Amino acid sequence: MDLVRDTLSNGRVFRALTLIDTCTRESLAIEVDVSLGANRVVRILEQLRITRGLPERISCDNGPEFRSRALDAWAYQQHVALHFIQPGKPVQNAYIESFNGRCRDECLNQHWFLSLPDARRTIEEWRIAYNTARPHSGLAGCTPLQAAERFQTDGEQTRLSA
Predict the structure, then answer these.
(1) Which pLDDT score is estimated for 159?
(2) 57 pairs with which residues across the strands?
(3) What's the pTM?
(4) Which residues have C-beta within 8 Å of that of residue 150, sequence separation ≥ 6?
(5) 17, 112 contact by CB (below 8 A)
(6) In this structure, are residues 80 and 106 in contact, taking their beta carbons and an 8 Å threshold?
(7) Which of 13, 115, 74 is nearest to 3 (CA)?
(8) How many helices (H) and strands (E) does the chain have?
(9) Which H or E element spans position 156?
(10) Are 34 and 14 contacting, i.e. CB atoms less than 8 angstroms apart?
(11) What is the mean pLDDT of the chain?
């Protein structure tokens, strides 16, 4: 989980909260708004909990929205460990940093966002294409969605054979 900043055509800054599954490289969500505080981060994670389930651990940097009491309380209640990378060491969260670089190069730098709804729509379209049409060498040439489906199928087969 990390944050990326960009600017609308009118000069207004917006932020994008990016969340990926480090196992499948799937982009789980990109939440775009001018302000993304801790309570908003918790709401997004709660939506993902309902639709996807929870990981054992979430890695993030030391931003105030991640170091908040609200996120800490949510993580504690959900039995999810928060792993904070060392300040100035983005390599400790390399998958999200790589994803954010791709998002910047392939989406944010390629578009002139006229409004917040325009940015949300364009970024969501890119996220869907990233998950469904973009093979990754680290996933043996699969897309993140194919890797997630394969992982889910393998997990079900393991449970059935146990």
Answers:
(1) 34
(2) 81
(3) 0.89
(4) 142
(5) no
(6) no
(7) 13
(8) 5, 5
(9) helix 144-161
(10) yes
(11) 91
